[in-house]
């Protein structure tokens, strides 16, 4: 896999981390739903890129499912639920947005500190994608914990799921590392 392929993969993974921070920053429900749709679009682009680079046509199906369901059907359904139930337009954040963003930065740093040394045997470019994926997972978990509204917690859970999909469809080098360098003897 060439350096351009890794650079584009890192662009999409870094974009998911950036959009995860945008999800944490939102204080309006409609903006949160729209940014989640953008999160799903970038995820589907990332998965489609991995499908192209890895010559794995089954990943194109995963990208199509992500774009159809996560980027269109789920956001539209959440907006309809919000209107039907007359849910408040403002999002209540536990501790405030500034504290949440600071915790998010700490979680991204934690994921880099944990993943990069643990995957030292893997390809250096591929292991960064796993660190990005863990960052997206942790930021989704932080969003679930710091929000009081059910819809914003659901979006946090689906953001967490997007991070898991990013990790599962990442470069093959990390998958071969995870099989060969397992810390468990069994």
Percent of sequence in beta strands: under 5%
Number of β-strand runs = 0
Number of helices: 7
- Class per helix and strand makeup: mainly alpha
Helix content range: over 70%
Low-confidence parts: 173-186
Radius of gyration: 17 Å
So what's the overall shape? flat
Q: What profile does the largest beta sheet have?
A: none
Distance between the termini: 31 Å
- How confident is the prediction overall: mean pLDDT? 86
The string of secondary-structure elements, in order, is: HHHHHHH
Essential attributes:
single chain; 186 residues; mainly alpha; 81% helix; 0% strand
How would you describe what is shown here?
With 186 residues, the chain is mostly helical. Helix content is 81%, strand content 0%. The chain is built from 7 helices and no strands. The longest helix has 28 residues, at 57-84. It is flat and about 50 Å long. The two termini are 31 Å apart. Mean pLDDT is 86; it is low at 173-186.
